[in-house]
Design goal:
Blueprint: E1 7-9, E2 15-19, H1 25-38, E3 45-48, E4 51-54, E5 58-63, E6 69-71, E7 74-76, E8 79-80, H2 83-93, E9 102-108, E10 115-118, E11 131-137, E12 140-146, E13 153-158, E14 162-167, H3 170-173, E15 174-178, E16 188-194
Parallel strand pairs: 5-8
Antiparallel strand pairs: 1-2, 2-14, 3-4, 5-9, 6-7, 9-16, 10-15, 11-14, 11-16, 12-13, 12-15
């Protein structure tokens, strides 16, 4: 059985749990090497505030249905879940009531790959979406800031083999990002599981 130490982030208007050792070292290393080589990574153009540029990371979408996923003027079509992704999905589902339909995978190739401030609040995710975020590879800081109270900020280092669960009203009240860093770092793979209505 795997360890399931759970850390609850004590933040207002949010329900966020962190499992630093959700996968053991051997599992995390296996998944990292496998996904780095085998996932159908792509780089889309993204439009923000009327400007279009290459998205600063690679992505791939997977689902157990044929429903696309749209954000920032990008519409992605899903691939079928692999057996490895299904195994991860089922393990995460033991920690939540959600049955995930979709996984958006992100590959941060180095410190210049990033994800700007946003909430996972697209309408196809429903009112109070459950977002499960798994990290394999380089640990990166996950930044949170409250939409209205500018004094409320949090920073969490997402470790290799960890799971972060965002539930409840989190996406209504909080924004999150993976910021750029000038440090020389290795790639990070992030699997974000969600339910597309």
């Amino acid at each position: 059985m795997f360890p399931s130490e759970e850390i609850q982030l004590n933040l207002p208007d949010a329900k966020i749990s962190y499992f630093p050792n959700f996968f053991n070292e051997a599992e995390a290393h296996f998944y990292y090497e496998t996904f780095l080589k085998t996932l159908p990574w792509q780089q889309d153009d993204i439009t923000v505030f009327g400007k279009t540029y290459a998205q600063p990371r690679l992505t791939a979408l997977f689902a157990n249905n044929n429903k696309s996923y749209s954000y920032s003027n990008i519409t992605m079509q899903p691939h079928n879940f692999s057996n490895d992704l299904l195994a991860i999905k089922h393990r995460i589902e033991t920690k939540t009531d959600a049955i995930f339909t979709t996984c958006l995978a992100n590959l941060y190739r180095d410190g210049q790959d990033s994800n700007g401030w946003h909430a996972d609040n697209e309408k196809e995710l429903g009112k109070n979406p459950v977002i499960a975020s798994v990290t394999f590879g380089e640990a990166r800081h996950f930044h949170l800031k409250h939409r209205r109270d500018k004094t409320l900020r949090e920073k969490l280092l997402l470790a290799h083999g960890s799971l972060l669960l965002m539930q409840g009203e989190t996406q209504h009240h909080w924004l999150h990002q993976i910021a750029k860093t000038k440090r020389q770092i290795q790639p990070r793979i992030n699997l974000t599981f969600r339910v597309i209505k």
